[in-house]
């Protein structure tokens, strides 16, 4: 299993290019299942999660062509004949559930393994199922598989119990081919939902309200092929901003935008960073020492849970005490124990962490427990004195394209041990 060895204490400087967003690319690639015509996607990140999803849909009978060098993927679901997502593939990636809506809408049936619980929480998919049932799908869950069938879904008024990102995406995709109008209330407003809606509209879908909490979809008989460019990854962007904030330095991130990062940038300004935004680049200059910043995670446009671990890391070395509240996932503090191994002062009480900044962290061996927890450990390792070895970095490979190369280009001392 690969590990990452980081020698801390180097300031970061220079430029790094941000990749396409994992959490936009995953649903958008699934949208290709909704049409018989070829779809072309650009700016698709080279990530393990993307490879997993492409392998999953390829075994359904979809033809997959990929140019890893330029990030283009062409999918042709004209011959899709196996609307099944087997456990072996779903278990490594929860976002596989995003094939459910498109498959039942286009094929009239689907058999999709229930994604298991994962490190950050139980993450059930009851809202996805409830929404499809309200649209007329017959659904049973047997032997760990969701069986869904419906000759044609019917538009309906849907209301999810909580804001769910992939739930909104699944139901929005299904509704595109349903008969009549679907209204999704309490919809997720995440920018990735909007990017998906833009792709669906380019395919001929009739959607309004994406980006608000009420999305209306007028079903159409069929969708056609289109080309879509995946939006930049706002979480990858935020992660590099945090890395430079913590390690010190002056970096410029290109191929990205501050448009969806208001709350993250606001917190970094509060922490004492200087930030300049351009149309498609962001520059950050770190202060001598960061000030502690408290955060509370909540659905967009509030502070993203996918940036919580990175902010815990920067608070570990900031001046003062920060309160971190995690309101989305019930078990998303596993990085705290690992950060303590580096010398951090963190107290956990339920969904609240109290982080008091220390003057210095010290390198140690730590274990990555999930994707963003790993990112938090990388940030702490960049600051820690001496060497830190991060084990189980397959979590990082799920969501960060060429992490060690991008960090090395910014001057970090980092190497992958195979
Ligand atoms: C591929 C992708 O886009 N992943 C993101 C997506 O995950 P994902 O879409 O899985 O997360 P959700 O927005 O669905 O989860 C929000 C909360 O709702 C709960 N819930 C959700 C659905 C459901 O049917 N029942 C239920 O109880 C979840 O357990 C969680 O507590 O949004 C999360 C919250 O911003 C991010 O951390 C993930 O990076
Ligand atoms: C939790 C995440 O991803 P996923 O929903 O794919 O597990 C994430 O991107 O931080």
Q: What gap, in angstroms, lies between the N and C termini? A: 7 Å
| Helical stretch tally | 14
Largest sheet, if any? 4 strands, mixed
CATH superfamily of the largest domain: Enolpyruvate transferase domain
- Report helical residue fraction: 25-40%
What share of residues are in beta strands? 25-35%
Radius of gyration: 21 Å
CATH architecture of the largest domain: Alpha-beta prism
The poorly predicted ranges are none
Query: Could you tell me the number of beta strands?
Result: 24
Ligands in the model, by name, code or SMILES, are:
uridine-diphosphate-N-acetylglucosamine, phosphoenolpyruvate
Shape: elongated
CATH class placement of the largest domain: Alpha Beta
Overall mean pLDDT score? 97
Q: How many structural units, i.e. domains?
A: 2
Label the structural class.
alpha/beta
Give the strand order of the largest sheet, numbering strands 1, 2, ... along the chain.
22-23-1-24
The CATH topology of the largest domain corresponds to UDP-n-acetylglucosamine1-carboxyvinyl-transferase, Chain
Description:
- The chain contains 14 helices and 24 strands.
- It is an alpha/beta fold.
- It has two domains: 203 residues, Alpha-beta prism (UDP-n-acetylglucosamine1-carboxyvinyl-transferase, Chain), CATH 3.65.10; 208 residues, Alpha-beta prism (UDP-n-acetylglucosamine1-carboxyvinyl-transferase, Chain).
- The strands form six sheets. Strands 22-23-1-24 form a four-stranded mixed beta sheet, covered by helices on one side. The chain has a four-stranded mixed beta sheet with strand order 2-15-17-16. The chain has a four-stranded mixed beta sheet with strand order 4-5-3-14, covered by helices on one side.
- The termini are close together.
- The structure holds uridine-diphosphate-N-acetylglucosamine and phosphoenolpyruvate (PEP).
- The site of phosphoenolpyruvate (PEP) has 7 residues, from helix 12.
- This is UDP-N-acetylglucosamine 1-carboxyvinyltransferase.
- One of its GO terms (molecular function) is UDP-N-acetylglucosamine 1-carboxyvinyltransferase activity.
- Its main location: cytoplasm.
- One of its GO terms (biological process) is cell wall organization.
